[in-house]
Design goal:
By secondary structure, the chain is an alpha+beta fold. Helices cover 33% and strands 25% of the residues.
Length: 172
């Protein structure tokens, strides 16, 4: 099948970014990219307009980078406290997932849960730090603390009472 060159007007996953000149199959261009306004054909006049598209792309990328850096500063400053229900031994009955973190951050910080790098749900108490990838150049480190809803109860009998509770062995 013959190929054709087109200029993308927006980011197309797996194909290219805005203002890129790419070669695709004619059917893909004719049936999907061109009717949906995601691209237009390469002509001498469109090549002259390519510089305008590249400037627009550079401005957008710079704005997105600045927004991501500002969001990273706000995330690095914020501290949250999560509470997990634990048993008598201190073992957690639940876990903290990326969705839980997004829900708690919503009071002013908007983050997609897929950007949170959490290898496995958090089931332990204490200080934790996770990475949130906001932009391909910007990663924020988010610190939070996990505490138990109730402190583990460890009952230790006094030594005198412990001796009374133990049955004595008879010696021969």
């Amino acid at each position: 099948m013959p190929n054709t060159e087109i200029i993308l007007t927006e980011n197309v996953p797996g194909l290219g970014a805005e203002a890129d000149v790419v070669t695709v199959r004619r059917g893909y261009a004719r049936n999907f990219l061109l009717p949906h306004g995601k691209a237009y054909e390469v002509t001498p006049s469109s090549l002259r307009q390519l510089d305008n598209l590249k400037k627009k792309r550079a401005e957008r990328e710079a704005r997105e980078l600045n927004e991501a850096e500002e969001l990273a500063r706000r995330i690095n400053k914020s501290r949250l406290l999560f509470k997990l229900e634990t048993g008598e031994t201190g073992k957690a009955f639940g876990s903290i997932t990326a969705q839980d973190i997004v829900t708690r951050l919503k009071n002013g910080i908007e983050v997609d849960r897929h950007k949170i790098h959490l290898e496995h749900p958090i089931k332990t108490t204490g200080e934790h730090e996770i990475a949130i990838k906001l932009h391909h150049d910007v990663t924020a480190n988010f610190r939070f603390e996990v505490k138990s809803t109730e402190e583990p109860k460890i009952e230790a009998a006094p030594p005198a009472e412990a001796a009374k509770q133990r049955p004595e062995k008879k010696r021969k």
